[in-house]
Specification:
The longest helix is centred in the first third of the chain and has 15 residues. The strands form 2 sheets. A 6-stranded mixed β-sheet has the order 5-6-7-8-10-9, with no helix packed on it. A 5-stranded mixed β-sheet has the order 4-3-2-1-11, with helices on one face. α2 packs across α3 and α3 packs parallel to α5. The termini are close together. 33% of the residues lie in helices and 20% in strands. It is an alpha/beta fold and 273 residues long.
Length: 273
């Protein structure tokens, strides 16, 4: 089965919030259309960070529900952000309220499944499971980074991230083996961790990967890793023009950069056998 995947759409950075919701929705759909691959798979996986606005996340999932037989997604840290006073008032300074509202908005989409707490969903004899997989805040350096650098400590309200990590860990211990594991936070060390010299708030290293395939996001990277026969996939769109960080004009021609950009800004795929 061809399975398509992407993460870290950050839609409101590309199609900014405007008062005219009809225009905003149409522009969002038009942007999502540009991400579609030439040959779509049967299933789409979104590994978190859709938008800072639930209505835009709903439009995204609604659009993709018409393009794929089934859509699986997990929430990322940005999907819990309360980015304005209006949102903080609306959700009573409780980020979990955003989650509950989104669940209600997408309830009519019968072929869209939000995975949380490592719940398992069987689709055509294949087992999918997932969760945000929050990072642990156990080391002093990680807690300091969280409190002084990361926006998570400021924009995620009313949630104890350490408790979230602990709870998910207990559930994961009892999770059965699945075909596809979906997390937002990476479950293994990847190139981004080495490049930036820190794993604070960017890693929840799972001792045992209970899946043949693991899709994640959070770090804005696009790579495939193979460790001990398990495949790990990350296809993070990231922020606008973030791909330029990988293609210096001093090293690559305009044609090479254009080709790279067209590959970067696309949903990618792999086969489940």
């Amino acid at each position: 089965m061809q399975t398509d995947y992407i993460s870290d759409l950050h839609l409101d950075f590309y199609i900014k919030h405007i008062g005219n919701y009809d225009k905003w929705e149409k522009k969002t759909h038009k942007f999502l259309e540009t991400l579609l691959p030439d040959n779509k798979g049967e299933v789409l996986i979104i590994a978190g960070d859709l938008s800072h606005y639930n209505i835009q996340s709903k439009w995204c999932l609604e659009y993709f529900s018409k393009q794929y037989e089934h859509v699986f997604f997990v929430l990322g840290n940005h999907d819990y952000y309360l980015v304005s006073n209006g949102q903080r008032d609306k959700y009573k300074r409780k980020s979990k309220e955003r989650e509950y509202e989104l669940m209600g908005l997408i309830f009519p989409l019968i072929n869209v499944t939000m995975l949380s707490d490592f719940m398992t969903f069987i689709y055509k004899d294949l087992k999918f499971a997932g969760s945000t997989s929050w990072y642990p805040l156990t080391e002093f350096n990680d807690v300091t980074f969280f409190n002084t650098v990361s926006n998570d400590s400021r924009l995620i309200n009313g949630m104890d991230i350490r408790n979230e990590n602990f709870h998910e860990g207990l559930v994961y211990e009892n999770m059965e083996e699945v075909d596809v594991l979906i997390t937002h936070v990476p479950s293994i060390l990847i190139n981004s961790h080495h490049k930036y010299g820190s794993t604070s708030c960017y890693l929840n290293e799972l001792k045992q990967i209970k899946a043949k395939h693991n899709i994640f996001g959070h770090c804005h990277e696009q790579s495939v890793y193979d460790k001990a026969g398990i495949k790990f996939y990350i296809n993070a769109l990231g922020y606008p023009n973030e791909w330029l960080n990988h293609m210096s004009p001093l090293e690559y021609s305009k044609e090479e950069r254009q080709k790279y950009a067209s590959m970067w800004n696309k949903i990618k795929s792999f086969e489940i056998k």
